[in-house]
Amino acid sequence: MSSQTTPANAAKPGEPRAYRSAEWFARAGKYGFVPRSWMKSQGFSPELLDGRPVIGICNTWSELTNCNRHLRELAEHVKRGVLMAGGFPLEFPVTSLGEPLMRPTTMMFRNLVAMDVEETIRANPIDGVVLLAGCDKTTPAVLMGAASCDVPAVLVSGGPMLNARFRGRVLGSGTDIFKLDEEYRTGKISKADLDAAEAAMSRSAGSCMTMGTASTMASLGEAMGIGFAMNGSIPAPDSRRAVLAEQSGKRAVELVRQNITISKILTRAAFENAVKVNGAIGGSTNAVVHLLALAGRLGVDFKLEDWDALGRDVPTIVDLKPSGRFLMEEFFDAGGLPVVMQRISHLLNLDAVAVEGGTIGERIADAQSWNDEVIRPLDKPLTPQGGMMVLKGNLAPNGAIIKPSAASPRLMQHRGRAMVFENSEDLRARIDDPDLDVDADSILVLKNAGPRGYPGMPEAGTMALPKKLLEQGVTDMVRVSDARMSGTAFGTVVLHVAPESALGGPLALVRTGDFIVLDCAARKLELEISAEELERRRAAFVPPPPAYERGYGRLYIDHVQQADKGVDFDFLVGGSGTPPSKVSF
Ligand code: FES
After folding, report:
1. Which atom of ligand 1 is least distant from the CA of 212?
2. Domains of the chain (ranges plus CATH)?
3. Quick one: pLDDT at residue 13?
4. 420: which of 89, 138, 161, 562 lies 20 to 30 Å off by Cα?
């Protein structure tokens, strides 16, 4: 076909509509000349512009995001799959979010990336997308952006890095950093030992290889059907991940031809499955805010309380760190998520849609376990009650969460005296003070670490234990905050308290010496002071000054919602689809 003529927008028989890319490439005159001609400057032949589906490959690759550093290579495999199926692949970068480097916290930029993804898709001749993500926030961000456009989409995760091996020990990302740090602080290992462990911890491309937030979100993408089977667990360097990427590219073309958009896969049934699978894998607490935000983009009726109601009776059967013993490599070898889903299939919506075609039930029908130590039978769970507990009470009127599989059972019913830290700096300055007035029964309280207060809701909720108590052999204490927790962390940690302290939520009113009651069985979090005293303190509350006066930080502070709503921006909730575009020249 001549590049100067209008392409036929070659819809195949039975295809539901002309693709949106035709608005660019199929136009007559200068309106078609310009987009076609400038694309040809990259060496694309006219054949690629003949009306075939254009598949955007949304790439969160960056050298600032080490976990995603191999995604350029993975994109080449996606491209091959797109071409095999008769599509036209176009890779594009979006802002990336690397957990270990970004400050104040990647969570502050999740919504920015989601905006980047959404607007890039909508502004360009893209009919469907393959979403390449890995490190924690990149996965929810790309899904949220694609959801607000409601285009056909496939999630391809970068996969977990290889297990870390160090002097006969197998180290898990994050999880063992906490332990090594405590060993170093208490003099059990030397600085040289710590340096050697640092060099051994992250030895390949890929995301953290524990069931941390990255593995959780990749697994939940798989569970929700938007990623292929085994998307969550194939190790990053494994050739089978490249095959998965190729097949995902191929499938993206078919999704466009069949007009199967993301909202047809990410239904309420898919969210319900995700909550149950999260319980079974002992997934990260961060999944709570990410799935709430994603549901908000799609208009799916899914609330904080669903996490408890749907997930409370799901046993954790995956024996992975931080809750258990093994790592993602063993999980993959054992059969991965299809085995988990088959074992809890009586709890799942088996007719939910799988992106590769067919249903989730069909996907998992033939799954086989190769290691029952890693993926345990239902009658030998790691924790009988996995999932999340949603707590409410006068200290958290809009809710807070705790992950029972990471908590100490003896502390889940606990009354203790509060030791309050006004913010993270205060915590760092005083936690190792030998005169700190705490004992093993105290409850550590951290304020001003919520979405607006920090800002960006850092993973500060785990709070290192006071050195003097570590030296006494104390290994866990109840901790309460409006912060999040790393998916690789553990402990009896109450998180996401809403409303947050910077807004004058009751957390802001707690004082050192107050008594707090944590009653997980009754789902209660109570501050033992009278309503009158609470009101007196509320009247005297002075909000902290905003951390940002201008720019994105200011936008974030002004528009971010609370944890019980997913920490999305108020003006980003919902979607705008991909309406016909205006031609600008
Ligand atoms: Fe990127 Fe853990 S730091 S996944």
Report:
1. 2
2. 52-162+204-364 (3.40.50.2300), 164-201 (no CATH), 389-549+555-563 (3.50.30.80)
3. 45
4. 562
